[in-house]
Amino acid sequence: MSRMIRSLAVAAAMIPLAAQAATVDVKMLSHAPNGGRGFDPAIVHIHTGDTVHFIASDPGHNAQSITGMIPDGATAFAGKMGQDVTVTFSKPGLYGYKCLPHYFLGMVGLVVVDKPENEEAAKAVSQPGAAKQRFEQLFKQLDHP
Ligand SMILES: [Cu+2]
Questions:
Q1: Least crowded by CB within 10 Å, which of 40, 54, 67, 110?
Q2: What are the residue boundaries of the structural domains of the chain, listed by start?
Q3: Pairing between strand 93-98 and 64-65?
Q4: Predicted confidence band at 3 (pLDDT cuts at 50, 70, 90)?
Q5: Which fold would CATH assign to domain 21-143?
Q6: pLDDT in tens, 4-34
Q7: Cβ distance 89 to 68 under 8 Å?
Q8: What spacing in Å lies between the alpha carbon of 103 and ligand 1's midpoint?
Q9: Can you tell me the distance from the alpha carbon of 80 to that of 3, in angstroms, rounded to the nearest whole number?
């Protein structure tokens, strides 16, 4: 009997650890560390089930996924302009995202959920304006951290 109680206690103690998911903050900035408008940090590594909280630190930005730059079957996301948005990533892979009004100025970022399995497909997406060069930088950082 006491052994059974002890087993239950051990099982109960393990539940919070197993269920624990992390939340990572990403700021939307008008003067990001890369120079201009950007996300900080621009690359985040998380695990399946974790959440990214995109924070509207500066006004006039949003965060939304880019078509073709999310894993097959993953849900696209789009935050409202000037507002925080919270996204939980339930499918592993690489997610490229943008600020809609500043996409062509290179305001883009990457979320890596476990492993960037769809990296080659994401790299093949054609990018407007300065987003092309910015993504080249980010993929370089991702491949050679
Ligand atoms: Cu923006």
A1: 67
A2: 21-143
A3: antiparallel
A4: low
A5: Immunoglobulin-like (2.60.40)
A6: 556 655 555 555 555 588 999 999 999 998 8
A7: no
A8: 7
A9: 54
Distance CA 81, CA 100 (A): 9
How long, in residues, is the chain? 145
Distance 15 CA to ligand 1 centre (A): 40
Report the separation in Å between the CA atom of 131 and the middle of ligand 1, taken as the mean of its atom positions.
12
Q: Are 35 and 104 spatial neighbours (Cβ–Cβ below 8 Å)?
A: no
3 alpha carbon – ligand 1 mean position (Å): 58
Chain mean pLDDT for the chain? 92
Residue 79 alpha carbon to ligand 1 centre in Å:
12
Task: Compute the distance from residue 34 Cα to the ligand 1 centre, in Å.
Answer: 13
- Single-letter amino acid, residue 107: M
